[in-house]
Design goal:
single chain; five-stranded mixed β-sheet; 37% strand
Length: 514
């Protein structure tokens, strides 16, 4: 077995212990037997780079923002980190705000309905204490600015101080009431509105004072404003967007094209990848996901429905028809079947934070790729191998086309992805690691955990040069526990700096820490 070089991972990771995951929070938990509305199902999750904010999008076109609270409450947190003292508090988030990002539309030229469902959310660089993010549905990308605003109230009225301070809206009620006006701004004590309990000074007001708008520091509101709309650039459904490390540009990808945008220019984009053949009957594969390199602004990767990942360099040409590297796993002889190409389709790719590795998810497995080794993945993790004998049933009910996302920990030592029955799996990818944990999106994440069996000896071919893990636990589940194809965990995100995972089970957002 050829293991990854020690340079790929920290030395301490070689003896890493499996993490013990605990429940942290849940938002939108539904009661037993409660029906879930289609528009409330979460369709996108994304942490920002700091990990202090979390965004979710749903099928109703809404974006909900959460902010971290435990860092603010614990003033000595940074000091404890510098002293290497353990922090016992787990990450805590609270609801911040929400806004309607997309509305349902209709394309009259093609007679097609455009869903409001949020496909992807990406955070942009913050500025002036404002949050910026991109959200997209099938056709339109929007650039949002979310900012805190202090609440303005009306003050200094011709009213008793106790009355005017209690209710900032008294100006409208006082002006709307019918009363007899006297010279010099005075008014009679008799108010013609019997429901008006405002008190005026005896003898009327000596002078007329106009209402004054004051800003109070206690009450804050969050305003979301759409700054840019990037539309009419994709003939097919947008499957991914990704920010560039330069902070100025981003890409959007559909089935056949990848476009490059400038954040400040919404009426023009550049087509950098086009896989559309002259004759659509010759089409053999489509683009499934695209992502920029985390630090190299000229490098991006995109995956295809044939299971390959292509790395392209924007410096080579304006239209990147040729890739600089191709990552794909070769089939074993005699293993091809009707479902081979379907389950090989890559549904998601993520760059590791160090930019050295790429994690990809196909229907059955997670694969970890080294950018310096294009002969095959350095590790392969079986997510739900027990479903392989049931591929025919999965094809009949279209479950085989479900698109699961994947994520990596900030230190690059672990990877995670979802499965059915609201389960998700966490694998250790450091050399020598045997970590393969199964968790359930519920208040008791270890409820579906099964003990690790004795691992059989593994044989590896020189062709794949890969470590294959996870299939042993799945076999036990196939023999014992049932699985529910209607409850699937498609979307999850790993905190950028801590061992904390946010995952979506229908309309509920679960958070766990270790």
């Amino acid at each position: 077995m050829e293991a990854m070089s020690p340079d790929d991972r920290p030395e301490a990771a070689q003896q890493q212990q499996p993490l013990e995951w605990r429940f942290a929070q849940v938002f939108g938990e539904r009661a037993a037997g409660e029906d879930v509305q289609e528009v409330d199902i979460i369709s996108a999750i994304e942490f920002d780079k700091s990990g202090d904010h979390l965004a979710t999008g749903d099928r109703g076109g809404r974006v909900v923002l959460f902010e971290r609270t435990d860092t603010r409450d614990n003033a000595s947190r940074r000091e404890l980190e510098r002293q290497d003292y353990p922090i016992s508090r787990h990450p805590e988030f609270r609801y911040k705000t929400e806004f309607q990002s997309h509305e349902p539309e209709f394309d009259y030229l093609k007679s097609l309905e455009i869903e409001e469902k949020i496909n992807k959310i990406k955070w942009c660089q913050t500025a002036n204490n404002a949050l910026f993010l991109l959200s997209t549905n099938d056709k339109t990308i929007k650039y949002w600015k979310v900012q805190e605003r202090k609440v303005k109230r009306v003050s200094v009225m011709n009213l008793d101080a106790s009355q005017s301070s209690d209710n900032g809206s008294t100006s409208s009620s006082s002006t709307s009431s019918s009363r007899a006006l006297l010279p010099n701004g005075e008014c009679s004590e008799k108010l013609y509105n019997p429901h008006n309990n405002l008190s005026f000074p005896p003898g009327g007001c000596a002078s007329l004072r106009l209402p004054v708008v004051v800003v109070t520091g206690e009450d804050l509101s969050h305003a979301a404003r759409c700054r840019r709309v990037y539309a009419h650039a994709h003939d097919y459904h947008i499957n991914s967007i990704s920010n560039n490390s330069d902070g100025e540009t981003f890409i959007s990808a559909d089935d056949l094209r990848i476009n490059l945008w400038n954040l400040e220019i919404s009426n023009q984009s550049f087509n950098i990848v086009d896989v559309k053949p002259a004759n659509m009957e010759d089409l053999t594969e489509v683009i499934t996901c695209a992502e920029f390199h985390p630090t190299h602004c000229n490098t991006l990767a995109y995956s295809s429905s044939k299971g390959s990942i292509r790395l392209i360099d924007l410096r080579q040409s304006a239209l990147c028809d040729n890739h600089s590297k191709l990552f794909e796993e070769h089939e074993a002889a005699g293993s091809r079947s009707f479902f081979t190409e379907i389950i090989a389709s890559v549904s998601d790719i993520k760059f590791a934070r160090d930019g050295r590795h790429i994690l990809s998810r196909d229907y059955m497995t997670l694969k970890l790729w080294d950018l310096n080794m294009d002969s095959g993945p350095v590790a392969t993790f079986q997510v739900h191998e027990y479903l392989r004998p049931k591929l025919c049933d999965l094809y009949e009910n279209d479950s085989i086309f479900d698109k699961f996302e994947c994520c990596l920990s900030g230190d690059g030592l672990r990877v995670a992805s979802g499965s059915y029955s609201n389960l998700f799996r966490v694998f250790g990818c450091a050399p020598g690691s045997t970590e393969a944990t199964t968790l359930e999106a519920s208040r008791n994440p270890m409820r579906r955990q099964v003990p690790n069996p004795v691992r059989p000896a593994r044989t590896l071919t020189s062709l794949t040069r890969a470590v294959r893990r996870g299939g042993e636990n799945a076999a036990i589940e196939a023999n014992g526990n049932s699985y529910d194809l209607s409850t699937k965990l498609l979307h999850l995100a790993w905190h950028p700096t801590e061992n904390s995972i946010a995952c979506a089970a229908a309309n509920s957002l679960y958070m766990y820490y270790a």
